[in-house]
Specification:
seven-stranded parallel β-sheet; TIM Barrel; alpha/beta
């Protein structure tokens, strides 16, 4: 299929499950009631993706308060109750971070129950999203390793163990989320890509790394406004990702100032282009989505284009998020029909 569709990972949580439109929401319930409510929310997330025609679905991260903490705090050596306020993403914003207090180890499955349930609840291809080592390290307070590289490889080992079990449960695709790659360029070159590769060493399923400019929250929107008329961060890191073991790179494109020429820096990787802007609740039309795909076709062959959201939609209103899902599915279908009728787009000069 041309231009297969997916989402970056998260969808908004219903108000009866957690505080709405929050990045770190508090749960409304506890215990068995919470677990049942999370499953109900997962059913809704899968239904909305199926209804929109999304090809590669996720559980909407309905069982996680936050995409990093949901994985990292389940590991031995990370104290979820010992919080320290610190700047993350190069001090873009301040958050309360759990603390690394000892050797990081995976002593039990983290997302197995969630993925087992999601696998049973959908006939679509299923993707798991897991935070990457650099992003985890950047979102925790380290009192043990006191060295970002050492800590990152400890988390990479835990991620690799988790992925192996999830693939055995029937997960079709694994996505590693590394928004920190768009901030710490020297570390990406020095050890970031090596840590990413350690996460997926020997993995027998398609793999994606997601690198974006962040959720549509105020701090990220203000940061983007200062980046100028052309966002060249990807140009710094894509040559390194082109040499990585990951199969696809998920990137932000819609509503951004990312120059299309950077698509040529990905070597032979598939590009999961962001065709849905998560920094606004304005809903794209299917024609808007098809137009973004058409721009990418000038730089990539059709078989190397996937279509996604720019980032997760956890902080967004539910109505807008679900409408954007439908625009994504319908827009990709429009682009698919057009491509099949007229053939490949001319290469960019």
């Amino acid at each position: 299929m041309l231009f297969p569709t997916t989402i970056a990972g998260s969808l908004p949580k219903p108000g009866w499950l957690a505080e709405p439109e929050r990045l770190w929401p508090e749960w409304r319930l506890a215990g068995d009631e919470l677990r049942e409510a999370q499953r109900d929310a997962t059913r809704i997330a899968l239904f909305e993706q199926d209804r929109a025609g999304i090809d590669l679905v996720t559980d909407g991260e309905q069982s996680r308060r936050h995409f990093v903490h949901g994985f990292a705090t389940a590991l031995a050596g990370v104290d979820a109750a010992k919080l320290a306020r610190r700047g993350i993403r190069d001090d873009r914003y301040q958050v309360d971070c759990p603390t690394i207090t000892g050797e990081v180890r995976r002593t039990k499955p983290v997302h197995a129950d969630e993925m087992r349930f999601a696998r049973d609840a959908t006939r679509r291809r299923l993707k798991i999203t897991i935070p990457g080592p650099m992003t985890i390290v950047d979102t925790l307070n380290d009192e043990h390793y006191r060295d970002r590289k050492t800590a990152a490889f400890a988390f990479a080992r835990a991620i690799r163990e988790e992925i192996e079990e999830l693939v055995a449960l029937g997960v079709d695709t694994v996505q590693i989320d590394e928004p920190a790659f768009n901030v710490y360029f020297d570390e990406v070159e020095a050890w970031g890509v090596a840590a990413l590769d350690a996460c997926i060493e020997g993995v027998r399923c398609p793999t994606i790394v997601h690198v974006c400019y962040g959720y549509g929250v105020d701090a990220n929107v203000k940061w983007k406004a200062k980046l100028g008329p052309e966002w060249d961060q990807y140009a710094r890191i894509f040559p390194f990702l082109a040499q990585s073991k990951v199969g696809a790179v998920s990137l932000e494109l819609a509503g951004s100032h990312v120059p299309l020429r950077i698509l040529g820096l990905l070597g032979e990787k598939v590009a999961a282009i962001g065709v849905i802007d998560v920094a606004t609740e304005r809903v794209e039309t299917p024609h808007d989505v098809a137009a973004t795909i058409e721009l990418a076709r000038g730089y990539l062959p059709d078989e190397r284009i996937m279509c996604s959201t720019n980032c997760g939609m956890a902080p967004m209103g539910r109505a807008a998020a679900y409408a954007k899902l439908r625009a994504l599915g319908e827009g990709a279908a429009l682009a698919r029909a057009a491509a099949l009728s007229v053939g490949p787009a001319p290469a960019a000069t």
